[in-house]
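Supplementary Note 2. Why include the ligand at all?

Several targets in our set were suspected to adopt different conformations when bound, so apo predictions alone were not considered sufficient. For every target with a known small-molecule partner we therefore ran a joint prediction. The input for adenosine-5'-triphosphate is given below.
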Amino acid sequence: MPSQPAAPSKPRIIPSLARLMPYVRPYLPRLLAGVGAALVGSLLALAIPLVLRALVDGPLTHGDRDAVWPAAIAVLALGLAEALCIFLRRFFVLQPSTYVEASMRRDLYARLQQLPVAFHDRWQSGQLLSRAVQDLGQLRRFLAFGSVLFVVNLLTLVVGVGVLLWWSPLLGGLFVLLSLPIVVVAFRFEQTYHQVSRRAQDQAGDLATTVEQSVHGIRVLKAFGRGRHALDGFTSQASELRSTEIAKARQDASLWMWLTIIPFVSYAVCLFVGVWLVTVDQLTVGQLLAFFATAVVLNWPIESMGFLYAFAIDAANASVRFHEVVDTENTIDDPERPATIAEPRGRLAFEGVRFRYQDAPDGERDLVDGADLVLEPGETMALVGSTGSGKTTLTALPARLYDVTGGRVLLDGVDVRDLTREELRTHVAMAFEDATLFSRSVRDNVLLGVPGADDDVLDEALRIAQASFVHDLPDGIETVIGEEGLSLSGGQRQRLALARAVAAKPAVLVLDDPLSALDVDTEAQVEAALRQVLAETTALIVAHRPSTVQLADRVALMREGRIDDVGTHSELLARNEHYRFVLSSLEEAERNREVNL
Ligand SMILES: Nc1ncnc2c1ncn2[C@@H]1O[C@H](COP(=O)(O)OP(=O)(O)OP(=O)(O)O)[C@@H](O)[C@H]1O
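The joint prediction is reproduced in token form.
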């Protein structure tokens, strides 16, 4: 499966994070309160050296031991107030970050629902899953802790350096000068960490795709004894991700190391110069002590910048990955001034229809290459053609699963692109060979297109689709089926999918070989019941079995992207050699199928 489009190489941190503003804005007051609490906490920590300096240069120098107690109580009070501020920071930021995560997740899911099938053809499911779960979790953690600490530690550093300069302009200036290499280290870190962080996120998405696909295809893997092979593939992907995570951790550790070494070298030089300043009476012992007590307080903000910087880059990449999905242009949208069909009759016309998939090689002819076909109201048209001739693709166009790339599809004379998708899909219903059911009750699955419809609609749909077996399920029509529910046979699934299409009572029913998994007797019963429905409904049925062709009023033969011939089954048999050839291959396939059953 082709993966999602390549990512831009290096997004910028601030613009990428600023794009989260619409989600953050409603919670900004609480977030700012969190930043405020954290900032007050940090400033309180910076105040402790003031007490120490007052103690050393005052009472201790004059031998006044009684003054130690008030100073100790002041330090304790400052410590307690700092702890309270840390609690308040968490209290203020926890809720906003979880709300932001939830609303971003909802928007992502809504976008996935809106985006056309062509988008889902190109994107791996695991990539979408990892964006919805892992990336948004990363953004929540960054909002809750990373962003707040980043801002607070940066401000603490600015204030702290100001305090150092105040204690001693010479020592403070020296400290700043000697710390400048941090800027170079941070710049180099950003150059490389961006890519490795993005690679890790993409690889986590690939890994999720592998898990999803192998869980989905577990029967095939087991039937072909490919479990070991799948495990080997998974292990190698997992170890690639591990190597990337290690590369990330190495770069992070290296930054952390320099953020520890550089300040300590600065402290050592400052200590040397500071002691000299004390000996030449340019500085008091209390000032020197306060200078270093402040420097120690600044140690954490400096060191933490290492992982916070990495955290910010991870979050920026997560934001970019989120926006790559939500910014994807929806190529199948509703018209600005939609038309409407008040009383649909179900006349379906393909006029010079062309279609090619986005990833079709240049120079290759269009898959649907100028198809013309008219289905009169109430008519049942079978669509036949050799394999790969584009039948399934053509049937996806009336409901706009894909949009034509040329020509038009008309429903009762209205271009389907002029209707809202909601209206169009009440007029056109589909059932596919690959019957997808959701982990919900039988009722919910069948009434998917007509939620809230009454039991009569449900019963009739189940009767037409010969799906009365549902009444024997443990909880009848309330039985939960699908992935996390009861397993059904392929034929049972197809009948429920057919019931779903029929229940919607559409003007046009598009059936892509929906009876392929049924035995011949059941197929005959379904067809007999369908005949009643199809008397009022226009139907386009992709037929892979001769018996399905018999159901139709007329047959359209698709060949090389066009409708080669249209007529009754016997007319085509009599006049079209390609039709005879296609039909004999269908009959042969059917014979082989019966032998295998
Ligand atoms: N989502 C897709 N993206 C790109 N190419 C596709 C996609 N779906 C189908 N194709 C290609 O389009 C061609 C026609 O496929 P389609 O399923 O429409 O044919 P078909 O006539 O229904 O075939 P069959 O009888 O085997 O079901 C095939 O070559 C297929 O590889």
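Residues 121, 357, 359, 367, 385, 387-393 surround adenosine-5'-triphosphate (CB under 6 Å). The two ends are 31 Å apart (CA to CA). Comparable summaries for the other entries are listed in the accompanying table.
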